[in-house]
Specification:
247 residues; alpha+beta; 5-stranded mixed sheet; 11 helices; Thioredoxin family protein; Thioredoxin-like_fold; Thioredoxin-like_sf
């Protein structure tokens, strides 16, 4: 069996404003939704235009996917996300990378930086093509290398500064990973389903609408089953059910 993306207990360093909001709440007692409902967190989830996204810009519903290019379970989940994208053309799917520290994160970081370039250069279509190529390689070989990433980028015509991106991948933690840690996730294959109008709400309004934020945590996808494919199908089913329940 391919190695799983185990939960990672990593110290976070949120900004002071977030610290102030969460100062009276421990990670064990606060819900994910309470953190997501902090305006700066909500904005980072929904308004970051550099984050790869698929679907209509004026969508009323969004699915935020935290993933890891080096993760075998995420490779299976990617297939299910592609199905959900086709089945829900009115929904925006937003992809946030969360490389697990259980493995060497440099390759996953590099793959993510190239994915961002793919999105910036060719939009959602090029991003999805790259996404499929990289995850297919991960699934077929059981691992991912920088050479695999470079081959996918070259084949798809993605222009990248390899040396610069590799250096950044080796030395900097991804902002999307910091965001996932801040929310309370300890690894990838975590999901958030929510209405996009939350991005326009004040702090007080968000606090009153946390019930509209649906979360599948990495802990849930890790504990539901050891079978990657079944875990992926379970996650997709939960997401689809939630999307159907939203107006």
């Amino acid at each position: 069996m391919l190695s799983s993306c185990a939960n990672q207990q990593v110290e976070t360093k949120p900004t002071t404003s977030v610290d102030d909001v969460l100062s009276t709440k421990s990670e064990d007692t606060r819900s994910y939704a309470e953190v997501i409902a902090i305006p700066m967190v909500m904005s980072s989830l929904l308004d970051d235009k550099s984050t790869p996204r698929v679907g209509p810009k004026n969508a009323k519903k969004a699915v935020v996917v935290f993933f890891d290019y080096a993760c075998g379970k995420c490779a299976q989940i990617s297939k299910e996300m592609n199905k959900l994208i086709k089945e829900n053309p009115d929904t925006e799917f937003i992809f946030k990378a969360y490389p697990s520290l259980k493995r060497d994160a440099k390759v996953a970081n590099y793959a993510t930086l190239v994915a961002n370039e793919a999105y910036l250069q060719g939009g959602s279509e090029l991003f999805l093509a790259y996404n499929k190529a990289v995850f297919s390689q991960r699934e077929n070989s059981g691992r991912l290398t920088n050479e695999d990433v470079e081959h996918a980028a070259k084949r798809l015509g993605i222009k990248v500064d390899d040396n610069s991106l590799k250096q950044k991948a080796a030395t900097e933690e991804l902002e999307t990973r910091k965001l996932g840690k801040l929310i309370g996730f300890h690894g990838p294959h975590a999901f958030i389903v929510l209405p996009t109008d939350l991005a326009n709400m004040s702090a007080e309004q968000l606090e009153s609408n946390t019930d509209k934020i649906y979360v599948i945590s990495d802990k849930q996808t890790n504990s539901i089953t050891d079978d990657y494919q079944e875990a992926a199908k379970w996650s997709a089913s939960k997401i689809q059910t939630q999307l159907k329940s939203m107006k």
